[in-house]
Write a structure and sequence with these properties.
- 47% of the residues are buried.
- The protein has one domain: YVTN repeat-like/Quinoprotein amine dehydrogenase (Methylamine Dehydrogenase, Chain H), CATH 2.130.10.
- A four-stranded antiparallel β-sheet has the order 1-28-27-26, with no helix packed on it.
- 0% of the residues lie in helices and 46% in strands.
- By secondary structure, it is mostly beta strands.
- It is globular.
Length: 352
């Protein structure tokens, strides 16, 4: 007997649908977009699957560092405003494909690129010429940050009112002067995280910075290389070396997460969010790619012998990984850019 029951009779709410997982297809696999001389790729990031940036090393041939933009299914070489030396990171705030993008790197380089007209300009910064910037992040043109190190001192810059200022004096007094700050990430609510050498983890809340201790037993010599949103505003941090580290913020402290057997000595990049490879995707030395669903055991894979330095996941849940050989201070070795998912254009001419 079938009994019809009115929904009005019950106090229980309809169950909320589970979010759709990003499932791969039979055609999904890693493909090389490029694997050639011209400088290692240090960073890959984008606003969509057809609006992707990749930057990296300078082979020292006079053409400047690697800087490419995928748009309208075509890879374009970007101007680097006559800059020499490696570019280590690329990021732009917001979702507007014509919004500004910042690239940072060697020789105190901070570049602003405007996709609407294709122009790139070098911005003045209050840092020593020897500064190596490793990361940049922000919420808008008047709230950008850059981190790095130079002349034996950490570098933390903040861009407001169209100009960069030194924000290093805002950091806690106990921070080691010779620490190198590698990456910065935050949310729209103003919660910022910075990671670096000498086991450095910094957090900014309500406009004030504090140091965050590592889990017991990790010492004071860990290099923490990348931080990214781990879900619910809880960051995930990777680094090393020996062993590789993956740390997660619990809401009150950092905890170490187990890694698969055979993981490389160092993890260099991490991205968290739904992808065809899982919720967590991290990359490291020897082409290591560690991935899996949150809360499950992670899987170790390798698609290349080159070290991988950065990873990004697009709105299609497809994975992009950047890397290559680091053979000199200009990062002028072979470069590799990998993509997992649908076929993307490979017409990336590296000017060699």
């Amino acid at each position: 007997m079938i009994v019809a029951v009115s929904a009005a009779c019950c106090d229980t709410e309809d169950p909320k649908p589970e979010p759709e997982a990003c499932l791969g297809t039979d055609g999904d696999r890693f493909r090389f977009i490029t694997n050639s001389p011209g400088g290692a790729f240090m960073s890959v990031w984008g606003r969509s699957s057809d609006d992707v940036y990749a930057v990296g090393g300078d082979p020292g041939l006079g053409g400047g560092p690697a800087a490419f933009h995928l748009r309208d299914r075509f890879w374009q070489t970007m101007s680097t405003a006559g800059t020499a030396g490696a570019l280590n990171w690329v990021f732009g705030p917001g979702d507007d494909p014509d919004g500004p993008v910042w690239m940072v790197g060697q020789n105190a380089t901070v570049l602003r690129h405007d996709p609407a007209d294709g122009q790139t300009a070098r911005e003045e910064v209050p840092s020593p010429a020897s500064t190596m910037f490793w990361g940049t992040w922000g919420t808008g043109e008047d709230d950008m940050w850059a981190v790095g190190g130079g002349d034996g001192r950490f570098q933390l810059l903040h861009r407001t009112g169209g100009a960069w200022t030194d924000a290093g004096d805002e950091l806690p007094a106990g921070l080691r002067e010779d620490a190198v700050l590698y990456k910065i990430w935050g949310d729209d609510a103003g919660d910022l995280w910075v990671v670096g050498s000498q086991s450095t983890v910094l957090r900014r809340t309500a406009g004030a910075w504090s140091q965050v201790p590592l889990p017991d037993g990790l010492g004071d010599q860990a290099s923490l290389l990348t931080v990214h949103d781990g879900g619910d505003g809880r960051p995930l941090i990777v680094g090393g070396p020996n062993p590789a580290l993956m740390l997660r913020w619990t809401g009150s402290a950092l905890e170490s997460l187990p890694l698969p057997e055979g993981s490389p000595p160092n993890l260099n990049g991490v991205r968290v969010g739904p992808s065809v490879l899982g919720d967590v995707v991290a990359v490291g030395g020897l082409g290591a790619l560690i991935h899996g669903r949150a809360g499950d055991a992670l899987t170790l894979a390798s698609e290349t012998s080159h070290g991988l330095h950065a990873v990004w996941v697009d709105e299609k849940c497809e994975v992009w990984a950047a890397g290559g050989d680091l053979t000199s201070e200009n990062v002028g070795g072979d470069g590799v850019l990998l993509h997992y998912g649908e076929i993307v254009p490979k017409s990336m001419h590296r000017g060699l």
